[in-house]
Design a protein that fits this description.
The chain has a domain at 74-258. With 272 residues, the chain is mostly helical. It has helices spanning 29-72, 75-85, 90-115, 118-123, 132-159, 161-168, 183-203, 209-225, 234-241. Helix 1 packs antiparallel against helix 3 (90-115), helix 5 packs antiparallel against helix 7 (183-203) and helix 5 (132-159) crosses helix 8. Helix content is 62%, strand content 0%. It is globular. This is Fatty acid hydroxylase domain-containing protein.
Length: 272
């Protein structure tokens, strides 16, 4: 079972802070910069050059940084409290985080290492790689991902809120929120954007590796930063306010009256 009937204690007790967390001085811009550096190191070095071995090293580093999230800010701890309040056990939360991390980065490994190659990744660091047609192709890919993400996200809020509620228990988004999804939810929201980039690669863009790699990495980086408590993007506010902005890149508000999820989330009391 993935749910319990009462707020429990368990695996995540160490990160539930009622006062200032022990590594508070690392929070904000410092921690954000560290996560971005790790992501680029993972993409351009570990996955790119070392393949499967690099993948497991990268996963270990990601686990360390996700754990660190719980010690630089109170946000992850607050989300854990709210997840428990809504019936999710610590074991299930941990399982989903590990599963989602391994699964999402397996796709990244496929695209960067097995479809792409080190030369194509190196080319992305050269200004001469960027032509107008390439930039337009990447823009077209990102527009397609936005449309598909919006459709999937809207569907979850209006027609299948029970599978999406776990993610929205994170009303204080932080870096760890990127992994707190029911696995079916993650598949619905991100299968479309990931698939359209691959489909376009083989059907429209004549297997241009630069377009594929840049499109995918921009998408993944932006999806990672959209929960940043330092940047506080539109999507951050979507969590904290439970509003009807179902897009990622744009600030487009859908019809809030159709949202069935907002009323389902049990919110913690002020003194929780």
């Amino acid at each position: 079972m993935n749910k319990t009937k009462e707020v429990s204690v368990g695996l995540f007790d160490a990160i539930v802070h009622h006062d200032k967390p022990p590594l508070n001085w690392l929070g904000g811009g410092y921690y954000f910069t560290m996560t971005m550096v790790l992501m680029q190191f993972g993409h351009f070095v570990l996955l790119n050059h070392y393949g499967v071995v690099g993948y497991f090293i990268y996963m270990l580093l990601v686990a360390i940084f996700i754990t660190l999230d719980g010690f630089v800010s109170t946000s992850m701890g607050k989300n854990i409290v709210n997840l428990r309040l809504n019936g999710y056990s610590d074991k299930f939360i941990l399982f989903t985080m590990v599963f989602n991390c391994l699964g999402s980065q397996a796709l990244t490994l496929l695209i960067i290492h097995f479809i792409g190659n080190p030369q194509a990744m190196h080319d992305l660091l050269l200004l001469s790689t960027y032509s107008t047609p390439m930039i337009m192709a990447v823009a077209a890919n990102l527009i397609a991902t936005e449309v598909l993400f919006f459709a999937a996200h809207k569907f979850l809020h209006e027609h299948w809120p029970s599978i999406h509620i776990m993610h929205h228990c994170c009303m204080n988004p932080s870096h760890s929120t990127n992994l707190i999804f029911h696995p079916i939810d993650l598949a619905i929201e991100f299968a479309g954007p990931g698939s359209i980039i691959l489909l376009n690669h083989y059907t429209i863009w004549q297997q241009n590796l630069h377009v594929l790699l840049l499109s995918y990495m921009i998408m993944q980086i932006y999806y990672a930063i959209d929960h940043s408590e330092w940047l506080r993007t539109y999507h951050f506010k979507h969590h904290s306010q439970l509003n009807a902005v179902y897009t990622i890149y744009a600030n487009y508000r859908s019809t809030p009256q159709l949202d069935k999820l907002r009323s389902l989330v049990i919110k913690p009391s002020k003194n929780t």
